[in-house]
Each structure stands twice: as C-alpha cells, then as structure tokens.
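Case study B.
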Amino acid sequence: MDRILFFLGLIGTISFAISGAVTGVNKKMDIFGVAVLGVITATGGGIIRDLVLGELPPAAFREPVHALTAIAVSIIVFLPAVRKRLDDKRMQGTLLLITDSLGLAIFTVSAIQTAMVSGTGYNLFLLVFIGTVSGVGGGVLRDVLAGDVPYIFTKHVYACASIAGALVCALLWNIAGGVISIIAGSTVIFTMRVLSAKYHWSLPHA
Amino acid sequence: MDRILFFLGLIGTISFAISGAVTGVNKKMDIFGVAVLGVITATGGGIIRDLVLGELPPAAFREPVHALTAIAVSIIVFLPAVRKRLDDKRMQGTLLLITDSLGLAIFTVSAIQTAMVSGTGYNLFLLVFIGTVSGVGGGVLRDVLAGDVPYIFTKHVYACASIAGALVCALLWNIAGGVISIIAGSTVIFTMRVLSAKYHWSLPHA
Amino acid sequence: MDRILFFLGLIGTISFAISGAVTGVNKKMDIFGVAVLGVITATGGGIIRDLVLGELPPAAFREPVHALTAIAVSIIVFLPAVRKRLDDKRMQGTLLLITDSLGLAIFTVSAIQTAMVSGTGYNLFLLVFIGTVSGVGGGVLRDVLAGDVPYIFTKHVYACASIAGALVCALLWNIAGGVISIIAGSTVIFTMRVLSAKYHWSLPHA
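Model:
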C-alpha cells in the first residue's frame, strides 16, 4: 500500500509540475519562474491537505523527493527542444489535459488516504471536502499566481469530477479497503475529467 | 450561547454564500463555479480562523452544515427566476451590501469567541487581529479568485469597521460577558459598514 | 542572539511594510488599503512560516509590535510630503529594491532560525524550503492582492537569491553557530538580489 501510494504521489507530482511549468512557459517566465510555478503546482495540494489536517510541517517540506522531482520536470519542460514541441497547440492542449487530470485524480484520493490514517475518524463529509480541496488546490494556486481566473471556475465539470471520485473513494473505503477505493476513486475522476473535455460536456451558465 | 452562535454562524454563512454566488453569476461562471465561489466565500473566513488558532481540521471540514448551506444558497442564486431579479443593478447593490456587511460582522465576532474558548488566554491584540483577518478573509478570497482587486483595498471603511467592532467586542468581553460583547461588536461593524456605503464616507486617497 | 533576531525582524518588518505601502500608493488605494497591504506584506512571510511549522497562533498574532510597526510605517509612507518624494520614479525604484531585498534576506534566515529551535530536527531540505517560502511569501501576497503577477515569476534571480542564502545559512548552522549563519545567509541574499538588479543579471526566458 505504502509503495503504491508513493508511486502514485510521484505520478501526481510529475503531472502537476508539467502543467505548472507549461503555464509558466506560456507566460514567458524565466527558468526560475517556470521552476517555481512547477513546484507550487505540484506541492500545493499536498501542503493544503497537511495544513488542514494539522500534519505539520507538511510532507512537501520534510521529504525532498516531491519538490526536487518538480524542479527537474520543470527544467526539462523549459529545454528548447521540448519547448519547441509544445508550440504545437493541439499537442499542448492534450498534454495539459492528461497531466492536469492525473494530478487532480491522484491528489484527491491521496488526501482521503492521509485523512484516514491521521486519526480524525471516519467522517464522510470531511473526507470528500478535504479530497476535493487538495485535488483542486495545486491548480488553483497555479492559476492565481499566473494571473488567470482559476480553471475550476470557468470550464467543464472540474470540481464535480473531484467530488464524484472522492465520494466513490470514501464510500468504498470501509467496504473494499484502501487500495481498491483509491484505484476506483482516481479512475472516476480521471475519466470524468477527460471525457467532459473531449465531448465538451458543459454545465448551465449564468 | 452555543445556540445563538450557531444561528449567527448560519446567517453569516448564508450572507457570504450569496455575495460569493452573485459575484460568480456576474462573472458568467457555470453552476459549479458559482457554487464553488459561494462555498469558498462562506467558509474561507472560518477556515483561516481555525488554521491560525490551530483548531485542525477546521470546523468547515468537520461539520457539513456550513458547506451544504452555502451550496444550496448558491444554487438558489443561480436559478433563472432569481438571477433575472438580480439584473436590477440597484437591487443587486443593496443585496451585496447587506449580505457582505452581515458576513463581515458575524465572522469577526465569531473568531473572537473561538479564540476566547481555545485557551490562548486573553490577548487584546490577538483577538482584534484574528477577528479582522477572519472577518475579511472570505471576501478577500472571493475577490482574488474572481480576478478582482479585493474590495478591502479600494472601498469605504471596510477593514476599519471590522477592527472597530473587534475592539468593542474584545474590550467588553471580560466586563459584559460573551453574549453582549458579540451583539455589540457585530452591531458596530454592520452599522459602520452600511452607513459608510450609504453616505459615501471615504478615507483619504493617494 | 534573541536581541539580534528581534532587531533584525523589526528591520524586515519595516522594509516589507514600506514595499507594501508604496505598492498600495501606486495603486491609488486609500489610507486603510495602504495600511492593510503594508501589514500583510510585513507579516505574511512570518505567518506562513508559523503555519507550516505548526507554531500556532503565529507570532504576528501574539506580538503586536510587528503589525503596529507596519501600520505606523504605512501611514508615514502615505503622508503627502513623503508621497510627493516617491513620485520621483528613480528614487522609488531604489527604495523598493533596498526594502524588498532586506525583507527577503531577513525573513529567509529568520524562518531557518525558527525551524531550528522548533524541534523538527536538522533537515537541510526543510530548512531551505521553509526559508525560501517565508522569504518570498510576503512579497507574493503583496503582488497577488494588488492584482499583479508576483515579482518572483518575472524578474531577476529573486527566488534564486533566497535559496542560495538559505543554503549558506543552513549549511553553516552546525559549524559556525546561529549568529554567524544568519549574518552570512542574509548578506548573500541581499547582495545577490541587489547586484542582479543593478547589473540586470537575467536568466534564460522562454
């Protein structure tokens, strides 16, 4: 279980670091700005999760692997050869969709797992709320710091996918155990998020 | 006392949820964006209060009533029949002024009450600071996330009203008891905020 | 040691309060907006540091000296006689560079000192990360709240200076003791930041 979670967390970190770094490149930031935005996007959700649960200092501050991975990924995104390929807008759109969806899925379920082992007791609402806040947190920080209105407010069923997957994960936890709940929850989030973008599902606008 | 605080908290939640949801509708967000902005505005001040006091996880994560109320209120604001009435700019202005003032007043005094029972001891400066930060926090988050410069920086005697009411509430606490302090403090804030808007009180500009 | 830190902290507070208040004046805020931006810039880094380390409530909430100093400084910046002198753009640029660099240097090393005495144990990565986050935090809050893209993302070797000084400070700590580490670390940050601005050092842009 611990190894699965570590591996998933690393995928989430890499995914969100890519989405942050690509945003930085699009905003014409220098290499440090790109790395900073990559790190904040990749670690933001986990830091929010640990602040809310009182697990201080947050894991991102105690374990270098996440921040160092995010920095390495950001530098790779910044390499001229890689950046040139990102000029193809369709490819960039697909990359951002996949990485952002993976990050959303993984950070949502990982927050539920952290809450379950932190001794706050089983509280369905707390699990879903903390899962969603941690899942969307990194992307919200990315958008606010880059000067954009957060994606969560304008497009697709973003928060909705995170809430649905968090519900699935939290409801299954006592029945099917942690591993299956985590896989089921993250699959729901990733699938809903990608399909809603691909088929332009949309919610009523004001 | 507990019942009064719960009831006041609910009014504060509803007020800030309305102000967040109306902002979202004005920004042409879809129904989820509107609900998310409503929830963040309504729970933001209380989450900041609990993070600062170390009361973790914050009440907003433990007790569903606040977030669920905020979601319900946001959906009502989003209903076409309600939205149409909000097109009347004068009515919208009055609604936003009343709800934002009520939220400011209630979250300021409720943070002082939470601090008093949390065992940090009587520290006048801490009480006023935490009252003000929690009072204005929800509105600041709303404005930053909606891409606006926070209201607190540009208009009227916003922070000033919160500080004045927090001072009244904290100074009265040991003399007159919690209930009277809470009523007096929130009345000062609401009255100052509404009167300053109505009579265009203004502070020197740069 | 305690006296040195208190004195340094006060210089950091005054520096960041000036940079926040000048930003507020440039944005045509009223006197309360200017004071609020001054206080948030001056206390933001320390509040982030204490939230991350779990030292709650944060020192800024317990000890009035920082916030009251920041308010006093902001009011002085707002005085017509002072403001008029700030209209000279070259003078304003120099003032902002010096104060922002001092604040960056002092809040970076002060966070390392707080972490060292907080009992989290010696963890080089944690020390550097928390130093950098606390150092840049006040300025990031200032820029986000003022509606600007944070300085850290667009200019010079800002985060780089903070990281370099934090590394120097943390590496020296067990060898040379706290006082020398703090002086060496903050000198590195201040010098790198000022020289990079003066000689237009720049990092590769996308």
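Chain C touches chain B at residues 24-37, 47, 51, 54, 56-58, 60-64, 67, 78, 83, 144-147 (CB under 8 Å). The remaining cases will be described in the next quarterly update.
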